[in-house]
Specification:
Elements: H1 16-26, H2 28-50, H3 57-86, H4 88-93, H5 96-116, H6 122-125, H7 127-137, H8 140-157, H9 161-184
Helix pairs in contact: 1-2, 1-9, 2-3, 2-9, 3-5, 5-8, 8-9
């Protein structure tokens, strides 16, 4: 008996709630990647834009939170890249925008690590890291901030950023269902 599959409309009619549920169900890794990216964007903008007005002890908390979330993001980003390399479905939905996003993430990761390298526990765990990164330490904060604003502009002008991430996950979910249905027939 052949199972009837309802015809899909393209582009699919979805809202953020539907996409977020589908994203979490389809790819917890994608969800973690985009959630951490959003948290870093928000905390980074708070540090950059509201830093002078929200100084004092809050400054340390914001910077430390941003740094540790950034560390977690780096780990998830590495796993995300490995998953992308081994997933044909995931590679099928990537566009030039995604690759430019990855390049911007790598710049943000390198400058973020450079900014954090003279801090504890990194100095204790990797003593040579701050020495290795010292040539770019002076410009790293500026490059980090400028790259963030370039990424935001890029995400607004081109189909990138969070919107593209949500759309990609939805399409991955759609393709997985489509191929699963085709295999069952």
């Amino acid at each position: 008996m052949v199972k009837e599959v309802p015809e899909k409309k393209y582009p699919p009619e979805v809202n953020y709630s539907t996409v977020l549920k589908g994203m979490t169900r389809t790819s917890p890794l994608d969800t973690a990647f985009h959630l951490l990216m959003a948290i870093l964007l928000i905390t980074g903008l708070i540090i950059d834009l509201l830093g002078p007005w929200l100084g004092g002890w809050l400054s340390s908390i914001r910077s430390i939170a941003h740094g540790y979330v950034g560390t977690l993001f780096v780990l998830v980003f590495i796993v995300y890249l490995i998953a992308m390399l081994f997933s044909k479905t995931m590679r099928m939905v990537l566009t030039v925008t995604n690759y430019l996003d990855f390049l911007l993430y790598i710049i943000l990761i390198i400058t973020g690590i450079t900014i954090a390298s003279p801090n504890k526990p990194w100095v204790d765990l990797l003593p040579g890291l701050s020495v290795t990164l010292s040539p770019i330490a002076q410009v790293a904060p500026a490059v980090h901030a400028i790259t963030t604003y370039v990424w935001i502009l890029f995400a607004i002008i081109f189909p990138g950023g969070i919107l593209h991430g949500l759309a990609s996950v939805y399409l991955i979910s759609y393709l997985k269902k489509k191929y699963k249905t085709m295999r069952e027939e």
